[in-house]
Amino acid sequence: MPGAEFGFELRVCAWAERHWTPAEPDSRVLVARQLGTQRRRWDTVIVEADPEGVRTRAALGERELDPELLSLARHAPAEWTYYRDALPDPGYGWRYVREAVHRASARGVLEERKRSNRIEIRRVAPYPDWVRRIVAVENKPDLDASAARDLAAQLERDVALGLADEVWVATRADETRALVTEMPTAAGVLTVGGEMDATVAWHPRSLDPDATGVRVTAHGDPTEFEYVPPEEKRETRRRIAERAYGRGWRSYVETMRPDCRAFDLRRAGEGYVPFCRAKGREQTAAECAGSCAEFSPEPPGWRQRGWPIEGGPGQAVQRLLAERRRRRRTDAGD
Q1: Per the record, which residues fall in region Disordered (predicted)?
Q2: Do 250 and 275 lie in a common domain?
Q3: Strand order of the sheet with strand 110-115?
């Protein structure tokens, strides 16, 4: 059924947000979806965060810090300093760093001033080491034996790289036997049934992100691979965590068309999932676009009504999900 995997993914995210048990009891849990690297993207990412670190991170704004801004936030000095003396050599033109400094200043990530024709910078707050653990979950509601073998090979590569602290597969209850048989023993298996009643069918092995990882670069005889140093892994983890902090898992609405009169949100288990009244089913994010043959924009009159749909139902949906995302981010720092 179209949309089944997308809806399953949203349900897993909602379940994890409410019920995930972190390794350290006081950790706060942030959940995001479709994050990773250029080589690998995970369906669900769970960040177990230090509560004090999240509070400090909040001083730098609600939006994610892209790699340039993240580097500035980490290296900005406590006292006013010429930016070239404060920052590590970027390996490319300093004029691009100046542009990033201006962006960071406009975002409130750091402060800047000009003295003696020099740009000086000062941090707003220290960038904390707020990430304790990252858990990667692959969502596969329906699997045949061939797909299970392909997924097992991918999970073996995840285990060898050790970028996440744990890797899991979430699947329907009736798919569990095939998964447990095919999956690497280091990967956990989460069984999902009904309206997101999830149980652990197989516990994963904890990985070591601080150790050198192994990345497969080409399959063949022999298989080609490269070693990934711990510092590169730590930097990648920081970038993934930043995207999780800024986007959360409800960001799917930003690429869909809630301004279509057929768009709706419906309660499903622990959260809400999009529903297309024109199709009579849950739709995928790819289906819900302006190119959809069923797309019908809201009439202007809808956008002129008052509460509770001021600005139109589509904007009300966006406000609802944005507020829930903001609340979960704030709760993570309480």
Answers
A1: 295-314
A2: yes
A3: 81-82, 118-123, 110-115
Residue 309 has pLDDT above 60, yes or no: no
Q: Considering the chain, what is the average pLDDT of its residues? A: 87
CA distance 19 to 12: 10
Written as one string, the DSSP assignment of 15-75 is HHHHH---SSTT-EEEEEEEEE-SS-EEEEEEEEE-HHHHHHHHTT-SSPPPHHHHHHHHH
* Domain match, 208 and 283 both: yes
Task: Point out the domain boundary residue: 105, 123, 141.
Answer: 123
C-alpha 245/C-alpha 47 separation (Å) is 9
- What pLDDT band is residue 149 in, cutting at 50, 70 and 90? confident
What is d(CA 47, CA 133) in angstroms, rounded to the nearest whole number? 6
- Last residue in a domain, options 123, 139, 167: 123
Judge if 189 and 69 occupy the same domain. Answer: no
Average pLDDT over residues 128-152: 89
The total number of structural domains in the chain stands at: 2
- pLDDT recorded at residue 2: 47
E-strand spans in 3-55? 28-36, 41-49
Chain-centre distance of CA 142, in angstroms?
23
Separation CA 49–CA 332 (nearest Å): 8
Is 104 found in the same domain as 189?
no
286 & 229 share domain: yes
Q: Which residue has the higher pLDDT, 334 or 29?
A: 29
Tokens (6 digits) for 46:
């769970």
The residue type at 97: V
Query: Are residues 66 and 51 located together in one domain of the fold?
Result: no
Looking up residue 73, the CATH number of its domain turns out to be: 1.10.10
User: What does residue 302 show for φ and ψ, rounded to 5 degrees?
Assistant: -65, -35
Are residue 96 and residue 155 in the same domain, yes or no?
no
Kindly give the pairing relationship between strand 188-193 and strand 166-172.
Answer: parallel
Tell me: do 218 and 90 sit in the same domain: no
Range of the domain at 105: 60-123
Dump pLDDT digits (tens) for 231-276: 999 999 999 999 999 999 988 888 899 888 899 988 877 678 899 9
**pLDDT tens for residues 194-229?**
666 788 988 999 999 999 999 988 777 787 889 999
CA–CA distance, 99 with 53 (Å, rounded to integer): 28
